[in-house]
Amino acid sequence: MSLSIGKKVSIFVIGLLIIDQISKIWIKTNMTIGESIPVFGSWFQIYFIENNGMAFGMQFGGVWGKILLTAFRIVLIGFIIGYIRSLISKKAPVAVVFGVSLILIGAMGNVIDSLFYGLLFGESTFTQIASFLPEGGGYAPFMQGKVVDMLYFPLIDTTLPEWIPFWGGEDFIFFRPIFNIADSCITIGVAYLLLFQRKFFSHN
């Protein structure tokens, strides 16, 4: 018996969320902040950092900013789930449903970090690997956990020529942001929908 589209989407979302969380937990409990592991030469590294805010290491407004950001993400998750259910009920193209599901995975993956990592893990530092369920509690209260990032692609790492105005002689790295699987899901989902499914949204 073939699975319904709803069950396929559920398996897809849960599967990628598990992969996202396993990667983050492994990094958190095996590496120190700033530690890197080369994967393909120097242009792809596992590089452990944490951030308090948005995707790709961007920040947002301290403690209350983080609470507002997390609350907004929770509301957004509820909206996306409702939208996916609506797409399924209207028999929208499967590709559209899975594209939106990627955005859902990204939002949920980073919300889990923000909600629970501060309670579950000890502090990660440049010299200390975090422990799971440490004595005395975690490093931060509920909704104040940091997001774990680890995917780093410094495809170009060079010094700009002196003749370039303003930036000549400075170090230049592309691509500088460090991100995680959840961030990747959001980026891929949005790009896919914009590039390949615009016709669907322009008629709905």
Please tell me about this protein's structure.
With about 200 residues, the chain is α+β, with helices and mostly antiparallel strands. The chain has one domain (about 5-200). Helices cover about 50% and strands about 15% of the residues. The chain has 5 helices and 6 strands. It has helices at about 5-30, 60-90, 95-120, 180-195, 200; strands at about 35-40, 45-50, 145-150, 155-160, 170-175, 180. A 4-stranded antiparallel sheet has the order 1-2-3-6. A two-stranded antiparallel sheet has the order 4-5. Helix 1 runs parallel beside helix 3, helix 2 runs antiparallel to helix 3 (about 95-120) and helix 3 runs antiparallel to helix 4 (about 180-195). The protein starts with a helix and ends with a helix.
Descriptive keywords:
globular, alpha+beta, two-stranded antiparallel sheet, 4-stranded antiparallel beta sheet, 204 residues
Task: Summarize the helices and strands and which ones pair or pack.
Elements: H1 5-30, E1 36-40, E2 44-51, H2 62-89, H3 94-120, E3 147-152, E4 156-159, E5 171-174, E6 178-179, H4 181-196, H5 198-202
Antiparallel strand pairs: 1-2, 2-3, 3-6, 4-5
Outline of the structure:
The protein is 50% helix and 14% strand.
Distance between the termini: 32 Å
Number of helices: 5
> Major β-sheet, in short?
4 strands, antiparallel
Instruction: Classify the beta-strand content into a percent band.
Output: 5-15%
Q: Give the ordered list of helices and strands.
A: HEEHHEEEEHH
- Helical percentage: 40-55%
